[in-house]
Amino acid sequence: MAVAAPPTIQTKPLRERLAPLVIPTVFVLIFATVLMVAPASWPKLITGILLPGLTLAAIYFMISAGLSLIFGLMDVLNFAHGSLFMLGGYCAWTCNVWLDPNYAGHWPITIASGNLRFIIGLIVGTLVGAAVGSLIEISLIRPLYKRPIYQVLLTLGLVFVFDALVRTIPAWGSLSRAPIKPPMLTESLSLLGRRFPSYSLFLICLSVSLAVLIALVLRRSRIGLTIRAGVQDSAMVEAMGINVRRVFTGVFGFGSGLAALGGAVAASFIGVYPEMGLEYQLFAFIVVVIGGLGSYSGAAAGALLIGLARTFSDHLVLETGLPTAIASASTVLVMAVVLLLKPGGIFNKN
Amino acid sequence: MQRLRPLLPLVAIGGLASLPFAFAADTTRFWQGVFIQIFILAIYALSYDLLMGYTGMISFGHALFFGAGGYTAAILLRQAEPPSMLIVIAAVIVVGATIGAAVGALSLRVSGVYFSMITLALAEIAFILFKADDPKLKPITGGEIGLQGIVVPAAIDATTYRLRFYFLTLACMVGLYYAARRLINSPTGRVFVAIRENEPRATALGYNTLHFKLLATAISSTIAALAGMLMVLYEKSASFEMLSVNLTIQALLMTIIGGIGTLIGPMLGAATIRLLDHGLKGEFMQALLPAWLRPDLVFGIVYVVLVLFFPAGLMGAIRKLRGKTSRSSVERLRQAMKPKAES
C-alpha cells in the first residue's frame, strides 16, 4: 500500500528565493552580450574595462552611500548632495594649488610636499563638507520635517545657490580646472602587460575599505544599531529615549562628509568644474534607485553595477563607432531596465 | 467689489493688450520683448503648476519638455524646405505628448521623490546628449553652439513684426490659461486633484490613477513643449540651455513665488521673476549691489527664503489679505510627497 509522501516543508517559493539574483543575472547577460559584439582580450578586459569600472564605482559609492543613508533615516532626499561633492572637490583642489610654494599667489603658509598637500586637501574637503552638511540640516532642513515636500524643493534651491556661489568666488570661477595628482600616485603600474594608473587603484582601495568600515560600524557598534533602528522606525527610537534629532544631524553631516571626500579624491582624478556636482549626483540617483533608497548595501551594489555598465558601454561605443554621448546615456537605460523589472530597487524588501 | 470680480480677467487682458502703447516710442520695442518672454515663461509655469499644483507630482525634469518642443520646432524650421507652421505646431504637440507619456510611463511606476529623481535623471541625459560635441550628433543637435539662424515664417517674425508676435504670445497664454482652467474644472481635473489629495482613496473609488497621472504628465508636457516652441520662434535659436536644470528650477521658482496650485499664481510668478531679473541686471542695481552678488545667487537665496517662510506664495498673500482662510497648499501637498514605502 502506497503511502503518500510526506509533504515537503514549504519555505519561501522558489521564485521569491531567486528574486535577488534576477538583476545581477540580467547584467551578467548584458555584459556578456557586449563582449560578444565587441570582443576584448583578457588583459584588456581587466585593465581596460573591469578596473576602470571599479574606479567609477568607487566614486559613485562615496556619493550615493550618504544619500541613501540620509533618505533611509530621515526621509530627506538631499538634492544638494552633489553640491557637497563639488564643494569637497573645490576645497581639495584649492589646498593643492594655494598651499604650493611654487604657485604665484600662494597662501602665507605653504607646504612643500605635494603628497602632504593632497592629504590635507582630502581632510579639509571632508571636514568642510561635513560641517556645511550639518549646518544645512540644523538651519534649513530641520524646520521643514513637518513639510517633507518643501525639503525637496529647498535642497534643489541649494543646488542653485552652491552653483552660483562657486562661480562667484573669483579663485574658483566657472572654468574647468585640471586635476592635480599627488607625486606618490602619479605613476602607472604595469598590470598584465598593460599600464594602469596607480591613482585609480588608490581610489578603489579607499572606497572598498570605507565601505567595509561603514558596514562594520553599522552592524557592530551601538551608534550603528541606533541608525539601523532609526531607518526602521525613528519614532520608536525616540521613544526609547535616544535623541534622534542629534543622530539625524550626525548622519547628515557624515553623509555630506563622505560625499565631500568623494569629491576631494575625484578632484585629483577628473578635475573640478561647477557642473561636476549635478553630473555625479545624477549617477548617485541612478545608483540609489537601482539599489533601493535607504539601503546601504543597495548603494554599494548599485554603484558597482553602474560603474561597470558605464565602462562596458564605453567599450561597446568605441568598438562599434556609435556616438560617444550614448555611453553617458547608457546608465539611464540601466536604470530603466531595473525599474521595469523591480520598481523598488534591488534591495528593497517591499 | 464682489460684483466687479467677473470683470477682472477682462481688465487684465485689456491692460496687457494696451501695454505696448503705454511705453514711449523708443522703449516700447524693448518692453514688448520683455513681456513676450514673460508670456512664454507664464505658459511654461502654467504647465508646471498643472502637474505639481493640481496632480501633486513634482517633476524635476520639466526643462526636458520645454526643450523637446523647442528643438522639434528648431530642427523642422531649419530644413531646406521648412514645413508650414501648422505642421510644426502639430509636430511639437505630438512630440510633447509622446515624451511626456514616455517619461510618465517610466517614472510613474514609482511615486514621491522617486518620480522627482527619475525625471531629473532623464532630463539630464537629454541635456548631456544635446550638449555633446559629438561628430555624429552635432549635425542634428548643434552641440554646444545650439541651432542658430532659424528662419521663422515671415508673417510671425518677431524682428519685423514685434507687436504682432506680442499679441500672438498673449493670445496663446490667455488661450492656454483658459484651456487649463477648463481642464481643472472638468471631471478629469477633479480626479487630478483627488490624486493629489489622497491617491489610495482615488484608487478605491475605482479610478485608474496611473492613467490619470499619465494624462496629466502628457498634457503638462505638451503645454511646456508649446512654450518651448514659442521661445525658439522668438529667439530664432535653440540651445542646450533650454534643457538645463536651471530652467526646471525657474519653473519651480515661478510656481512657488506665485503660489502652488492656483494657475494664475505661477503666471504672476513668471512676471515677477523676469522683471526682478531685469531690475537686478539693470545699471541702477548693478551699481548698488556688490559685484559678487550675482542675480543667480540672489534668486537662489530668495527661493530658499520663500520655501522656508512663505510657502503659499503671492496668491497665498493675496488670499490672506482678502481674508479667505483656505487650507494651505502646504497641507494639501504633504500627502503627495509621502514616500510610497511607508503606506
UniProtKB/TrEMBL annotation, chain B:
<feature type="transmembrane region" description="Helical">
    <location>
        <begin position="86"/>
        <end position="106"/>
    </location>
</feature>
<protein>
    <submittedName>
        <fullName>Inner-membrane translocator</fullName>
    </submittedName>
</protein>
<keyword id="KW-0732">Signal</keyword>
<feature type="signal peptide">
    <location>
        <begin position="1"/>
        <end position="24"/>
    </location>
</feature>
<feature type="transmembrane region" description="Helical">
    <location>
        <begin position="214"/>
        <end position="234"/>
    </location>
</feature>
<dbReference type="InterPro" id="IPR043428">
    <property type="entry name" value="LivM-like"/>
</dbReference>
<keyword id="KW-0472">Membrane</keyword>
<dbReference type="Pfam" id="PF02653">
    <property type="entry name" value="BPD_transp_2"/>
</dbReference>
<keyword id="KW-0812">Transmembrane</keyword>
<feature type="transmembrane region" description="Helical">
    <location>
        <begin position="163"/>
        <end position="180"/>
    </location>
</feature>
<feature type="transmembrane region" description="Helical">
    <location>
        <begin position="113"/>
        <end position="130"/>
    </location>
</feature>
<dbReference type="InterPro" id="IPR001851">
    <property type="entry name" value="ABC_transp_permease"/>
</dbReference>
<dbReference type="GO" id="GO:0015658">
    <property type="term" value="F:branched-chain amino acid transmembrane transporter activity"/>
</dbReference>
<feature type="transmembrane region" description="Helical">
    <location>
        <begin position="254"/>
        <end position="276"/>
    </location>
</feature>
<keyword id="KW-1003">Cell membrane</keyword>
<feature type="transmembrane region" description="Helical">
    <location>
        <begin position="63"/>
        <end position="80"/>
    </location>
</feature>
<dbReference type="GO" id="GO:0005886">
    <property type="term" value="C:plasma membrane"/>
</dbReference>
<feature type="transmembrane region" description="Helical">
    <location>
        <begin position="34"/>
        <end position="51"/>
    </location>
</feature>
<feature type="transmembrane region" description="Helical">
    <location>
        <begin position="297"/>
        <end position="318"/>
    </location>
</feature>
<keyword id="KW-1133">Transmembrane helix</keyword>
